[in-house]
Amino acid sequence: MSYIKLSQATLDLPIYDVRGRSLKQEVIRLGRKNRIAEDNDGIVIVRALDNIDLELGEGDRVGLIGHNGAGKSTLLRLLAGIYSPTTGIVERQGKVVPLLDISLGMDENSTGRQNIRLRGLLLGMTDKEIISKQDEIAEFSDLGDYLDLPVRTYSSGMRVRLAFAVSTAVDADILLLDEVIGVGDASFREKANARLLDLHARAKIVMLAMHDNSTIRATCNKAIWMERGRVLAFGPSAEVIEKYEASLRH
């Protein structure tokens, strides 16, 4: 059974190569004085996530909402294992697939076909899985003979199409999505969205961060409202979004 459980999870991030005083003044100006400190070496520490308790199970589709800098993408990175909690516990059961940077792991000097394997391995696919899916990935990318050329010869749109095709071929128990994912030009967008919805449906747990509340209402049964690294509300998506939107009107 797949699940996510966070118990008093807190994440402090050190900020190097900055002048502590000037940074502290900026953070205080933004109303974040409760999130900044210095350690014994004078290194500036920012509290990115603050004492988060959360439990998700199979069937949960969770939208993360909140202002820029609220901690949404940081929470996804914590769940992906990119960050470890400073204090508290993060438990995950099931295969976690983070689609936070779909071009991560692409090698400029390798061909498109070679990059299918490289990116697939990075996403946790086995050689057997990659071999079974590579033809379908190639067809979806619609790159034809360009797949046998180095990625450095690709346009930006071609790179996105290849990266998206590989990333969305993976089978995930827990799927983590960030809205920064690009899906290329208009001609590619419709089939990319359909493929993303299919991936979304196959996963047992989905957590996504975005600013489009209408999409969260339509696709998520739960929502988390975050501010300053804290969870302000968690529950049915319609209720949480209503609270968040009401706060914007005051």
Number of helices: 8
How would the global form be characterised? globular
Strand order of the largest sheet: 6-7-8-4-9-10
Number of domains: 2
Stretches where pLDDT falls below 50 for ≥5 residues? none
Order of SSEs: EHEEEHEEHHHEHEHEEH
Q: CATH superfamily name of the largest domain?
A: P-loop containing nucleotide triphosphate hydrolases
Largest sheet: 6 strands, mixed
CATH topology of the largest domain: Rossmann fold
User: Please, what is the average pLDDT?
Assistant: 87
What helical percentage do the residues reach?
Answer: 25-40%
Residue fraction in strands: 25-35%
Description:
By secondary structure, the protein is of the alpha/beta class. It folds into two domains: 3-94 and 208-249, Rossmann fold, CATH 3.40.50; 99-203, P-loop containing nucleotide triphosphate hydrolases (Rossmann fold). Helix content is 38%, strand content 28%. The chain has eight helices and ten strands. The strands form two sheets. The chain has a six-stranded mixed sheet, with helices on both faces. It has a four-stranded antiparallel sheet with strand order 2-3-1-5. Helix 4 crosses helix 5. It is globular. The model has no long low-confidence stretch (mean pLDDT 87).
